[in-house]
Amino acid sequence: MNSTELKTKVDRLAEEFEDIKNSLNLGNKKLKLKEFEIKSSASDFWNDQEKARKLMQEFGDLKNEIDDLETISSNLETLLGLAKEDTLSEDFVNDVDKLEKKFEKFKLKSFLSGDYDSKNALVAIHAGQGGTEAMDWVSMLFRMYIRFCEGKEWKTETVEVSGGEEAGIKSTTFKVEGSYAYGYLKGEAGTHRLVRQSPFNADKLRQTSFALVEVLPELEETDSPGIQIKEEDLEWQFFRSSSQGGQNVQKVSTAVRLKHVPSRIVVTAQAERYQEQNRKIALNLLRAKLWILEQTRKENEKRDLKGEYKPASWGNQIRSYVLHPYKMVKDLRTGVETSNAESVLDGNIADFIEAEIISGLNNKTIN
């Protein structure tokens, strides 16, 4: 790339960054950061440790975003000054490449502007057609997402797991704590299809399995004032947890099953050691599912299946994973594909996720 092209690239980056910076309103973010600092210095801040921990996560996310904004702005200012010189050094070329990569990552996050995109995520995976094969497929997807979250340095916690009779998992729900976890993962909602030689069949026949992935934002009561949950609409059941946790968990009925009578939604939580904690998790799960139902209703009214929200339904197949007779993973919405299926199943799904985020933004712009 010659000097003229490099200077043009720096100018383009500066122009794009200015647009994004204006849309993010750096001044408001700094004011919010000061509010967080005042709250965290209060003497009673840690009285409610769970609330305090969540506020500290928001504080950290906001501070990182502001730091990124200011770092990119400072680097751009330096490069714009150097670009005026007649001769550009090799260091200048390297610095432009580094800044461009950092800017692209930051730009991607700026696309996540939904009401709850910055929230933690609740991910549920359910076995579909395929029997034991499908349950094994759920365990493979579970591992894939856990690996992806580990790579992002996000914390994961299993909320509920129901094992298969012979192998695999019938269904599982886990929480993902991280910056913009819901915004990044929500595009994974839908049906995932696996084609492979069956490891459970002596003849090793080709088998097709399906699993449904649901992605919900973790919502507190204050996050969703429009979602009303009446105590008289709830049916609670308590049972002994089947999850790991030692003998103390097995001796008492700590696990919770909650049914919302009007919607017939049933949720289960059994990961925590105490019943009250599982009750709270179950209520948050129910709140998120009711919110999803409301979004589906609104989208159906618009009759727009390509809009911002895509419900997780069996008819909404989003990705195909083929391990036999050839290897390929292909996203049916964006067209992104790779022959390195093993890498994908090891959690390297960023290309698919990022392409769907950009695709969703384009669809929203068009609509």
UniProtKB/TrEMBL annotation:
Residues 81-188 form the Peptide chain release factor domain. The modification N5-methylglutamine is found at Q247. It is found in: Cytoplasm. The keyword Glycoprotein does not apply. One of its GO terms (cellular component) is cytoplasm. SMART domains: PCRF. Its main location: cytoplasm. Methylated by PrmC. Methylation increases the termination efficiency of RF2. GO terms for molecular function: translation release factor activity, codon specific. Gene3D superfamilies: 3.30.160.20, 3.30.70.1660, Release factor (1.20.58.410). Belongs to the prokaryotic/mitochondrial release factor family. Peptide chain release factor 2 directs the termination of translation in response to the peptide chain termination codons UGA and UAA. This is Peptide chain release factor 2. It comes from Candidatus Woesebacteria bacterium GW2011_GWA1_37_7. The gene is prfB.
